Each structure stands twice: as structure tokens, then as C-alpha cells.
Amino acid sequence: MHARIALVDETPHDLMTLCSRLQHDDKLRGNVYTVAAEAAPGGPSELLTVALGSGGAVAALGGVLSAWLLSSRRAKVIIEMTDGHRTRQVEIDSANAGTATRLLREAYEVTGSQP
Asked: CB within 10 Å: which end of the chain, N or C, has fewer?
């Protein structure tokens, strides 16, 4: 299971800042990668990919995203979770950052894995 994270209307610096925060979390360290995005007009050029091996990693991802969104106050992220067969997309911004962990856990469960 993995999550692809795209930032909406943000700079490459913002992506690297989020990447750094994710890599510093004990449950996510070593499972966060920057990847080139598929070329789409107006879309991001890079994405973050996070390998999610457990519910603890989902909770950690939700916590880091929530804190980062609340500190940036303007960012919006799109997280796409997939197990290779099923995909679920979640949009989180500063207005719903407090529910990030719940939203990600629901997406994780829908794609077939139980945390």
C-alpha cells in the first residue's frame, strides 16, 4: 500500500519542506520518496510517495500532514492511496486538517487494508 501526495498551488520548496517533515517521523523514515509526476497542464511536477505498511504509518502520515497544513495555513494536499488494484483520493487543507488521520484511515480501509 502506498500514498501519493500532491500539493495544490504550492512551490517545490513547500514539497521539500513537507518531505523533510515526513522523513523525520519515526514510523515513516525510510519510506518517503520524491517522484516525478505524470505531465499534466498546470499539475505538479513532483509528488511524494509514502509506503504505508501499517495503521501506525497511516496515523503518523495524518499527524504530520495535519501539523504541516495548520502551520502553512494555505496549502492543500491531494493524497491518493492505492494497493495496486483499488485507489481512493482524499483532499485535505487547513480547514479540515484536524480530520486528516480519520480521512486517511478511512481511505486506507477502503483500499483493502485494515490498520
From this structure: C
